[in-house]
Amino acid sequence: MVRSSDLIDPSVAAGEDLVVLRPEGLYCPAGNFYIDPWRPVDRAIVTHAHADHARRGHGHYLAHTASRDVLRTRLGEISLQELAYGESIDHFGVRVSLHPAGHVLGSAQVRLEHRGRVWVAAGDYFVSGTRHDPGDSNATCTPFEPVPCHCFITESTFGLPVYRWAPQRDVFAAINHWWSENAAAGRCSLLLGYSFGKAQRLLAGVDAGIGPIVVHAAVDALNRAYRAAGVALPPTKLADQVNDKSTFRGALVVAPPAVQQSGWSRRLGETSEAFASGCMQLRGARRRRNVDRGFVLSDHADWSGLQRAIAGTGAGRVIVTHGYEDVMVRWLREQGLEAGSFVTEYGDDHEQVVEAQAPGAAGAGQVGP
Amino acid sequence: MKHFARLFGELDSSTATHAKIDAMTRYFAQVPPADAAWAAYFLAGGKPRQIVATAALRASACEAAGLPEWLFEESYRAAGDLAETIAHVLAPPSRCSDWPLSFWIEQRLLPLRDEPVGERAARIVSYWSELDATGRLLLTKLIGGGFRVGVSKLMVQRSLAQVAALDAKVIAQRMMGYTDARHRPSAGDYLRLVSAQEANVRESGQPYPFFLAHALDVPAAEFAAALGPIGDWQVEWKYDGIRAQVVKRAGRVWIWSRGEELINEPFPDLLAAAAALPDGTVLDGEIVVWDGQGPAAFQLLQTRIARKHLTPRMLSEAPARFIAYDVLEWAGVDRRGMPQFERRDCLEAALGTAPGLSLSPTVSSPDWPGLAQLRQSSRERGVEGFMLKHRLARYGTGRTKSDGTWWKWKVDPLRVDAVLVYAQAGHGRRAGLYTDYTLAVWNRAPANAGQAQAVLDAMARHEPARPDALQLVAFAKAYTGLTDEEIRQVDRVVRLTSLDKFGPVRSVLPSLVFEIGFEAIQRSARHKSGIAVRFPRILRIRDDKPLHEADTLHTLNALLASTTRQC
């Protein structure tokens, strides 16, 4: 890792902004391209393949190599240029490179360098806790790396001090315990999580020795992409191919949230339902979800993680997007940073789930933020 | 505390009644009686006097977490619960302790009251640092007096009944007064609760569990089919007061509210009147303030309860009256198993001994339509409608129908169409959603849609209205009546149409009309509209109603005039 002082000369921080807000999305005027635009544009850099960041209808896409399969499955035959982490290209004098964000497979921070100025748009990212703990990063993708820059564009999905994630080993211990108890009682454990990212993280983290693992078709479609990228996931069965219903007793079933209280989940028999999300940190959200258990497992940074990520860039200026923008901006200003916000169309509020049909996946093909 | 925290987690995460009861039963069987005593107390709704003011808890938490006050407030707004906010904003525990619940309460929490302020704050912060998030949440709720988890007193009683292998009604009777604020439950108290021996409850001031009525949801035209002949029913007016039991035993009087709180203190006049009853008498009835003609507005009763010291003037200006409508014990004998009509005879005999108490009059009508006609006069009589009690009904426990039925046949609510002007995020299950609505009516009717639009345009420009100009006047807040899906819709509209934020409240550019229902309407100097309504709730969203057709202050004043008793 490079220290910020090695790369960044604070004296060049001023000048024309490298990224501005346009009705179509975040726009780089110097390079004439967009980052995660929400309206169709000619050139789009896509930080990751979640539906609210990777939309249809752009002329050309640039994304991380590992995003390719998911993007093609979701968007069809697009004109796609791929980059590996750290690899850079030059576009109208803007040097563009992608760096790991730790959010989902292929998720990237976009680093832009132009005339000595460096900006990073982080997209969605996962960093947790006040201190770096290598055992606590997202095991299903390349962990977040701080990239020194003058200006850092950060998300704020969980930008409040009440959002503090417990170490993942504790969360998985609780999930394993819940599953074991259900298995012992002959119940099915239905674990709800977004098909892309959360589901794979759950699969990679649970103790596969407890019982069989069954997945929904929407999850299976994405598992294939993960396995193809070399991410180790335990063996899984496709729910639609399970003929003997007694298989579900004692099994862990991983499915997208939309199956809750649907005909699909009724055939699992006696079931304990749980939902895995950062939102589950708060009792109100847990009770609204109406599940038996809520596990606090997020693919987004917690409050400490956000602060650590921002500090790690050495940036003097921070632009806050989707989440608790007002709170973060005020807090960062009180910490002596220059801070502002962009109003984006990502995330659609903290409680909302951006739903999109994954082509080829039957039923609730949901891809969450 | 860990056991109690685990139980809390189980109760909090489950929605099934039997699972909750089983979880409590497991807990009670597992912990020492001193802990079970406190757990039963808190679970059944007991609240000791607040140990530390919430403002002090807030300040200590901000300081311990190193957060500015505004950021703590933002967090609180998202979590919708102070204890939960505190539990999460503090750094993870440095060490974990596991003292028993009774130790926490008796050795640590209750003594906090007597500590100097500085020492108290230091102790609380140190207690937080030895608990995980659930433990902190519980501790903070116990200190702040806000402990609540989704179990009813009835469920706690059923669980204790399982532990003791007794009928839940026996537990219910033993539990009367158990959750009184001044009561400190001990191991001995708990053992008496679940003891296999029958205690002699008639010696003490214990009341009986209240029998609760069900709302009657049948159209009046179908009464004959649903309820049978009117002659099978004892009909009484339904009073809007405080449901209470008057217990007279061993020369003493106890007055218990339906919340099972002893309320002797606010009612010295009733204590004196009830002293004339013979020992071994328990009456059920309603406490109201009497204004010479009939029951006064509930407001007056409220102010009387709220007073710490009752002045002679208060007693003469707001005289209380106990309107008795049932007898549960007479001549020292439990009469609850007798049919309603026989209890009525008993009741009349009992009241003959105490002239200071009133008898709830029965209402007679040859048929149901006649009764429906009479019900129209409810508001001007200051009552809420009728109670229908089956002549053969025994006096049951709680909201059961197995012993017979009491129906409440309330008068239809008053209605107006009002405009949403402010919204505030809810708490608990509704945290983070805008669910608390302030509603307004026009100060006079707009001539047309254009006039209403001009008012909206001015609001959008943040121009304050001139006092005499056409404008919307807030008159009520409503929290209930919408489905979860409707709440989400309204929440979205509130976010999209926000004009200003004042702390947790947002003003909106009006676009929604709600039909509001309420039980009563009174003049009030406290409200800008000059009007206060009782039990306002949303009946439906009026998507069909344009803003300029919402109701006006004139509508409210007309309702006020039509419902005020003619003297």
Q: Average pLDDT across residues of chain B?
A: 89
Secondary-structure arrangement, i.e. CATH architecture of the domain at 214-410 in chain B? 2-Layer Sandwich
Strand order of the largest sheet of chain A: 7-8-9-10-11-18-19
The total number of structural domains of chain A is 2
The CATH topology of the domain at 214-410 in chain B corresponds to D-amino Acid Aminotransferase, Chain A, domain 1
Low-confidence stretches of chain B: none
Number of strands of chain B: 19
Specify the number of helices of chain B. Answer: 22
Q: What name is given to the CATH topology of the largest domain in chain A?
A: Metallo-beta-lactamase, Chain A
Order of secondary-structure elements of chain A: HEEEEEHEEEEEEHEHEHEEHEHEHEHE
Roughly how much helix do the residues of chain B carry, as a percent range?
A: 25-40%
Outline the low-pLDDT stretches of chain A. 1-6, 348-369
How many strands in all of chain A? 19
What is the level 1 CATH name of the largest domain in chain A?
Alpha Beta
Largest sheet of chain B: 7 strands, antiparallel
What's the name of the CATH homologous superfamily of the domain at 214-410 in chain B?
DNA ligase/mRNA capping enzyme
> Which structural class matches the secondary elements of chain A?
alpha/beta
Give the overall shape of chain A. Answer: globular
According to CATH, the homologous superfamily of the largest domain in chain A is Ribonuclease Z/Hydroxyacylglutathione hydrolase-like
